[in-house]
Specification:
Blueprint (H helix, E strand, L loop, with lengths): L7 E7 L3 H12 L4 E5 L10 E2 L1 H14 L15 E4 L8 E7 L9 H4 L11 E2 L2 E2 L2 H9 L5 H6 L6 E2 L5 E2 L3 H8 L8 E3 L2 E6 L2 E4 L4 H6 L5 H17 L14 H5 L6 H11 L8 H13 L9 E4 L5 H12 L3 E4 L5 E5 L2 E7 L2 E11 L8 E3 L5 E8 L12 E5 L9 E6 L11 E8 L4 H12 L25 H16 L6 E9 L5 E2 L7 E4 L9 H14 L34 H14 L1
Parallel strand pairs: 1-2, 1-17, 2-14, 11-20, 17-25
Antiparallel strand pairs: 3-8, 4-15, 5-23, 6-7, 9-13, 10-13, 11-12, 15-16, 16-17, 18-24, 19-22, 19-23, 20-21, 21-22
Helix pairs in contact: 1-12, 1-15
Length: 597
């Protein structure tokens, strides 16, 4: 395959991250000849979503790549300089994987029996068929082991960079206007939580929820509505905010005579702000939150089904529809530069000429990088046996947790259940993200300790994966007494989720900068950023596209398949509501019936 690619392109895109994929789709959509390369065998780069087995392979590739010292002899023309590409994996650091459960072979017999699959002889006892409810109970009490999680690897979708979409954010508007939304599915985030008075509380987002909330008095509700209306209707440039544009958002709120509860809701749940957040940012975040309410659900947020890594693939699909060429497992070895221009890329045995090179930060030649950025990311991914916040139904939860003391960073928590296809029945997937100050494990330790039980589960103790109780098994009297004690402590309050598996890692910063010596036709695409949504990637893609093609439209609406007329075909007639594939047959049946009359 390495020698089969055409050798000249308008745009070559290296990396299938979010920004790169949007740019590739936009260039292909206006008829440019696009080649999209990725050295991986999957889409998304650091934005990817993996099943459990795929994530294990990704970590193995990371370790193997550290020792990758490929020799490469460039094919250069006279006057050209060769710049070697970076190793994309070198930007991922401090990976720690931890298991808190045992293998099947290490479990006592009483527990290992619980790992029997559905449909076993347990379905009937003494010739009496068990009810569906009994079978469900049996399913719930199965013990989760390392072997069982690995066996059910296909039921996991694990994000490297989980993000939500504001219902009226830049990405949602782009997905709709470009007609790319048809390639993806979404679920509304069902609850926004906040930590108040030493417990998790659901934040009332809709107007109906605000007035139904019993923890907020009538006076406080009026305060809240007046403040939100002020942020929504007037905006940060109105006279309302005179004198506060250089102040913090908290300083502005302190002048409004708000009660602690109202101030807490606005700061931590709506604006998702810290004591350092500027007034301008706080007002804009509040406005963004409120503007997205009520469009698709009771919260302003949407989650992409099957993971955030699905979204780059949507744009790749559109690029391919309009003629973009895709080639995975193809390395960028380096670039040939002459007269302030990148003339070609070198990949394997081929030299591919181009007008523009769009490249993800993990592939950039180090000679043209001025700064690797300051906003590195700490990530924690956890498989747990129950939700962090009990409810009558499975919820898709967002929680913003501010720092408890100096030196800590605010942490964004997204909890996904089985209905999002993130994990099997009975389990939850918890994602934590914050700005890096130390290592990911150190940065997230205070939040993990607050909400999760990240201790090794003893071999003779099994907790059932439900939100209501803890069940224990024991093989000796001593451990039984200990288990009873733990069980009483759990049921006295809300049981903390038991962590079955955890992964910590640090991702690179998104505020990377090119230096003045960088060729003018090389366009940088950053990796994931610290914001909750995708707006940074969308706006960066728009800027790159405008720099390449300033007079062209950015991702105009793509036609539906039925709207496309191929040369020589008769144009289809107008479509009406109720039209279907059997319409022609119905017409013929109707004509036949008329004749028979």
């Amino acid at each position: 395959m390495e020698d089969d690619l055409p050798t000249e392109y308008d745009v070559i895109v290296v990396g299938t991250g979010m920004t790169e994929s949007i740019v590739a789709a936009a260039a292909s959509r206006i008829g440019k000849k696009v080649l999209h390369l990725d050295s991986n065998e999957y889409y998304g780069g650091l934005w990817a979503t993996f099943n459990f087995d795929g994530l294990q392979k990704w970590m193995e590739d990371l370790k193997a790549s550290k020792n990758d010292t490929r020799d490469f002899v460039p094919d250069l023309n006279d006057g050209e300089k060769f710049l070697m590409a970076s190793n994309q994996y070198s930007t991922v650091k401090n990976i720690i994987e931890e298991w808190f459960i045992s293998r099947d072979s290490d479990l006592p017999e009483v527990l290992s029996k619980d790992t029997q699959t559905e449909g076993s002889s347990d379905a009937a006892v003494d010739g009496v068929e068990k009810s569906d409810e009994d079978k469900n109970d049996k399913k719930e009490t199965k013990h989760w082991s390392i072997d069982r999680i690995k066996k059910e690897y296909r039921k996991f979708n694990i994000d490297l960079a989980p993000k939500l979409l504001y219902a009226r954010g830049d990405l949602v508007e782009l997905l709709i206007s470009s007609n790319i939304a048809r390639y993806a599915e979404f679920r509304a985030v069902s609850r926004v939580a906040t930590f108040m008075d030493d417990k998790l509380t659901q934040v009332p987002c809709s107007r109906a929820d605000v007035f139904a909330n019993k923890t907020v008095s009538v006076i406080e509700k009026r305060m809240l509505m007046q403040l939100l209306t002020s942020c929504m209707d007037q905006g940060v440039d109105s006279p309302e905010f005179d004198g506060f544009r250089d102040a913090t958002f908290l300083e502005y709120l302190n002048t409004k005579n708000l009660t602690p509860i109202v101030k807490h809701y606005v700061m931590q749940a709506i604006a998702m702000a810290t004591n350092k957040t500027s007034c301008r940012d706080g007002v804009n975040r509040t406005k963004h939150f409120l503007n997205s309410l009520g469009r698709y659900g009771n919260t302003p947020f949407l989650w992409p089904m099957y993971g955030s890594g699905e979204l780059p693939q949507c744009f790749c699909r559109l690029c391919a529809v309009f003629g973009g060429v895709y080639c995975l497992k193809r390395h960028l070895d380096g670039v040939a530069v002459s007269d302030d221009k990148c003339k070609a890329i070198l990949t394997g045995k081929q030299r591919l000429a181009l007008e523009h090179l769009v490249v993800g930060q993990g592939h950039l030649p180090p000679e043209i990088v001025a700064s690797t950025g300051e906003n590195e990311i700490s990530r924690g991914i956890f498989i747990t046996d129950r939700s962090i916040m009990q409810g009558e139904k499975e919820n898709l939860t967002l929680l913003y947790y501010p720092p408890e003391e100096a030196g800590q960073e605010a942490v964004t928590i997204i909890e996904l259940g089985p209905s999002t296809n993130a994990c099997p029945q009975g389990l939850y997937m918890v994602h934590m993200t914050c700005k890096r100050t130390k290592t990911a494990k150190e940065d997230l330790a205070y939040v993990v300790e607050r909400f999760l039980h990240a201790q090794t589960l003893e071999k003779n103790v099994s907790r059932t994966p439900t939100d209501s109780h803890t069940q224990t098994f024991s093989t000796d009297q001593q451990s039984a007494e200990k288990s009873d004690k733990e069980s009483k402590e759990d049921t006295a309050g809300i049981p903390m989720p038991q962590v079955l598996w955890a992964l910590y890692l640090n991702l690179p910063a998104s505020d990377i900068k090119l230096n003045d010596s960088a060729p003018s036709n090389i366009h940088l695409c950053s990796g994931p950023d610290l914001d909750l949504d995708f707006d940074f990637a969308v706006n960066q893609a728009k800027e790159i596209f405008k720099a390449m093609y300033p007079s062209e439209d950015f991702l105009p609406r793509a036609p539906d398949p039925e709207e496309i007329v191929l040369e020589g075909e008769e144009a289809p007639g107008p479509k009406f509501e109720g039209d279907n594939l059997s319409g022609e047959n119905e017409k013929q049946d109707s004509e036949k019936a008329e004749k028979e009359k």
